[in-house]
Amino acid sequence: MASSDLILERLAELHPRKIDLSLGRMHRILEQLGHPERRLPPVVHIAGTNGKGSTAAYLRSMTEAVGYGAHVYTSPHLVRFHERIRLANDGGEKGSGFVTERELAAALAECEKANGGEPITIFEITTAAAFLVFSRHPADLLLLEVGLGGRLDATNVVDRPLATIITPISMDHAQYLGDTIELIAREKAGILKKGVPCIVAAQPREVERVIERAAARLAAPLSISGQDWHATEERGRLVFQDEQGLMDLPLPRLVGRHQLENAGAAIATLRHLPYDVDEAAIAAGMQNVEWPARLQPLSYGPIVEAAPEGAEIWLDGGHNPAAGEVLASALAELEDRSPRPLYLIAGMLTSKDASGFFASFEGLAREVVTVPIPDVEASFGAAELASDAARAGLTARVAGSVQQALAGLPRGEPIRVLICGSLYLAGHVLRIQETVPQ
Question: What pTM value is reported for the model?
Answer without folding.
Answer: 0.91
